[in-house]
Amino acid sequence: MKIRKVKFTTVFALAILFVVLLMTFFPSIFTSYDPLAVEPKIKLQGPSPEHFLGVDEYGRDIWCRLVYGARPSIEVGFGSALLAMLVGVPLGLIAGYFGGWVDNVIMRIMDAFLSFPSVLLAILLITVFDPSVKTLIFTITIVSFPAYGRIVRSSVLSLKERDFTEAARASGAKPSYIMFRTILPNCASGIIVQFSLFAASAILIEASMSFLGLGIQPPTPAWGSMLSYAKAYIGKSMLYILTPTIMIFLTVLSINLLGDALREWLDPTRLK
Fold first, then answer.
1. Which residues contact 61 (CB under 8 A, 6 or more apart)?
2. Which of 82, 85, 152, 235 is deepest in the core (most CB within 10 A)?
3. pTM of the model
4. How far apart, in whole angstroms, are the C-alpha atoms of residue 123 and residue 140?
5. pLDDT for res 134
């Protein structure tokens, strides 16, 4: 088997995501400031030796808030993608394997969720519940799990007619064993790729909701809410609005690049 070379874009994406994950779990490595500490006397001050990205309208260190703002984005992005996968994959397996009325009921339920504009449904759910990380994860899961189910169902419809599935059925294996031990491993590559793509989308949704004031609530740092407050001071502090934009861009870009790399690595037609 030919050894594949790792692309520069993949290394770049891994490096960016590694740094963001370090910010999420070990923020004290990158800053010693308190993200909630207020110093009104130096508000909107530009870069300085003490605050190399400057401070916001409350005198809070922008770099510090960027670092601590990574946590809600990663929690919402990967948490909602994981939860949507845990809900959507079993439903897709059941619908595709059993077919008939079971398939019709499950798919009509998914179609009902997909018929709502995802952003509007997210706004509706967030306004019903208190905005928080848990609410965002629940909301994005609701709008995302049908896509997992449809992807898995389409794979199961093909895989359940394959020889290895027929052999497992002929040997007396139970449907649960066939679905989760025979069919599901053969869907794993597509699920993994979709997980990365959904995580990137969830981060964008979280940033959008926070920008609109429906996501992470102040004073908790979040990239979306930082953008929302920075737009009023665009003429006074460009770094204030540019830095969270760049962080969102780089994080989403790195996850998408890794998703593309995974699709290539897991594609069986590329093995030679």
1. 31, 33, 35, 37, 51, 53, 55
2. 152
3. 0.87
4. 10
5. 87
